[in-house]
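Hey, quick one: can you model this chain's 3D structure?
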Amino acid sequence: MTFKIDLNCDLGEYQSSFEERKEVAIMPLISSANIACGLHAGDDNSIRTTIRRAWEFGVGIGAHPSFPDRENFGRKAMVLPESRLREIVCRQIEEFANHAIACDVNMTHVKAHGAMYNMAASDLRVASVICETVAKFDPEILIFGLANSYWVIAAESAGLRIIEEGFSDRRYLSSSELVPRLEKDALITDIAESEKQVLKMVRQNLVTSIDGIDHHLVPDTICIHGDSPEAYNITKNLRSSLKLHEIQISYPLCSDH
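Sure thing. Here's the predicted structure for all 257 residues.
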């Protein structure tokens, strides 16, 4: 059996030259990039710079829209009217697509950021609004969303192809949701633990929740958070480990999963 997986990373979020250098080092190691659209991080210059870098390395180019929340890096939950949520998402993906066109490349996918992503995973209304907005913009765009969540139902209902996502640097609840960031066990920073979790997802389609129980999960893509202190080391180790285990790293468009 041939295993394939996409490696994605949230990028374009750097706020210092050191963080930018880390992102530059990560880019050749991944197969898709989710690029901040300016509301939680980034600006016009960082968007175009990151798009060009992704194109240079043959990496899938995705918009990473968020709530308008730079103060909290897009990680504060916001309960918004549907019309406002649609407007926020639509504006970000339209502007991002225009940046991509200016760089003579195509936007390939959309992945919501932070609180917007997590709210949609557990709230079908939020997931549906986002997926319907993306589908109206371009029904061929891929949507990345948490595996086994409302993202899957909403995307399929909107006629979008869902790319189910697993995480290399986050622990799981028994519901298949991520442990909230504010809890002490939320993040995985140990490189070996991250590798073990990803290999189990990809090879066995299982993830172990914090209560020690294995749950079925079939990821199309694995996320590494670019703002994590260990992002580069985790990504470098994962790429080496996946290749060692003869697991092909490729963008989902190239996958027959």
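One thing worth noting: The CA atoms of residues 219 and 256 lie 13 Å apart.
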